[in-house]
Amino acid sequence: MTSARQAILGRLRSSGDPAAEYEQIARDYLIRHHEQDLRELLAERLADYRAIVHDAPVSELPTALREGPYVIPPDLPAEWTAGLADRVVTEPYDLEAVGGVITGCAVAIAETGTIVLDHGPRQGRRALTLVPDHHLIVVTPDQIAADVPEALARLDLTRPLTFISGPSATSDIELSRVEGVHGPRTLEVFLV
Amino acid sequence: MTNKPDPNSTSNLGGVGGGRMPTYVGMPSFPKAAREAVADSRLRANLAHATGTIRERRQRAVDELPDWAELREAARQIKDHTLRHLDHYLMMLEEKVTAAGGTVHWARDADEANAIVARLVEETGEREVVKVKSMATQEIGLNEALAERGITAYETDLAELIVQLGDDRPSHILVPAIHKNRAEIREIFQRKMPSAPADLTDDPAVLAEAARRHLRAKFLSAKVAVSGANFAIAETGTVLVVESEGNGRMCLTLPDTLITVMGIEKLLPTARDLEVFLQVLPRSSTAERMNPYTSAWTGVHAGDGPSAFHLVLLDNGRTAINADPVGREALRCIRCSACLNVCPVYARAGGHAYGSPYPGPIGAILSPQIRGIGSDVDASLPFASSLCGACYEVCPVAIDIPRILVHLRARAPKKAPERLAMTAAAWSLRTPKRLAALQRAAARGRRFARHARMPRSWTDTRDLPVPPAQSFRQWWKEGR
Ligand code: SF4
């Protein structure tokens, strides 16, 4: 009896040189849609999807905190949490019991108002930025990519990746958009 | 008609594809089901409202990109290239997923896929799974198959939850509960959701909050999750799920075991190809520049997320469809649902009339190819269209749906279905009163005037030429 694998692959037997043919694919699209003022564009596009945007230094982070402890990844720079020593906790901690989470990111995409976490430095594991209801993200200028192609080129796809564009949302009721379902209901971004 | 697909009635009679997919019990042919749906004025109003909203927004999101045509062309070429070398890329994917600590399974049809998933769940010792919305698992009737083995599947997508709690069937690819309005959803929640507050209103934000509370404990305690996949990257073994609510992130991150069922056509060769699809999918689908959340993972990641990952690669007729030079275009589909939202026949008939998890124009070309043209409903589906071409115009991977419909019409048993065809497409557009209602519903006057001028002798549908794309585009713009 042939295995399902053999049967499926057997029905697909192809010929030719995939690598050479792949190079022929026409990619006449733009590599970016905006050239300048990317920081402003990012701020505008983030706000379009109801993220709260701060054009402010990290020293103003404390003003954004709500009630309860804030969980942080262990490698968050000390200057980000200066003056917050009694407010922040690290894992292991009950993520349901925190007021929010503070992280950095890997890349931000100006065109689409997207922040990408690769769960590397300053970001923590995936659950850390998922369970708490308030997510504060610090974006540094060097992390802003103009558009999707540039962002993807900067990322390593074999890392776990989370693309975030605004707070969690749904369009499932009459196709009208409602913010706040299962993921963090408030997304707050500091463009430092 | 019962509400659940009957797992015993999976059909592959006269199969083009030889796949198996539940046909809903007692499902009448398209025209008959459509007539019943059109008689339901509330359903029609719900659909007209929802599709009207999303149509306008999609157009704005697309118009924002001056290079949309080039993105669409690249998307088409990438998909065609991948489908031509699917064996090559599938083997590459298998190798990479395995190297990253995942396990790859192959399933020829629905029964094999269901058996694999059920066995994997049983091996964990669990009797419950949380699910991320997935067309592939609907196609194979996974929830019903798991129930037969005593395993409960909890849908976590809001619309899927509404459908599941309401003992209903999905009627739209992206928004399965599109046929329900807020008042009806409130009523379902009050009846079926123990945690719903007594003063639940029909404000969508309040309903979403109720769903959040209802599912929270499930997410935090779930040990096994089942998902579909929007894309998989052969070069790296990465799988991606595109979503909005965060239920996907919950399912993909918190449980110990993740089982992903993916149609073999979801593959893309390289990471770079995502730069095209992450631009065209959200704008076509929810009319957003980017959807709220996209998750990507590669096998298992130590200390982060599930410790076991299983990828089930599903054929279910796809290899046969891929061998049909005309029909294979349907495999480019990225399930954005744009073609449903612009379709005048879908807006009138609703999703249930298509008798399959895949409704609308894409359903009309996919279901008969997966299941074959053996049943009344499948034989009538290729006729469930006026061939107006709107679906092709909006499709981000340029699937020439009208062409495939005509191709499939030629294969359908003669006579009866052709008569049905007349009723399916023409009937809703023929009388002045219906036409006027349709125009109001869709707020696209110019577009339907065009149908009204079509000759009555539509019966010879096989010879009806596809409207030239240029003139349609022209007319579409004028009509806006
Ligand atoms: S056929 Fe095209 S428009 Fe329709 S769901 Fe598929 S990709 Fe979208």
UniProtKB/TrEMBL annotation, chain A:
Residue ranges occupied by any LUD domain in the UniProt entry: 101-192
InterPro entries in the record: FTHF_cligase-like_sf (IPR024185), LUD_dom (IPR003741), NagB/RpiA_transferase-like (IPR037171)
Alphabetical list of SUPFAM superfamilies matching this protein: NagB/RpiA/CoA transferase-like
Domain of life: Bacteria
Protein name: Lactate utilization protein C
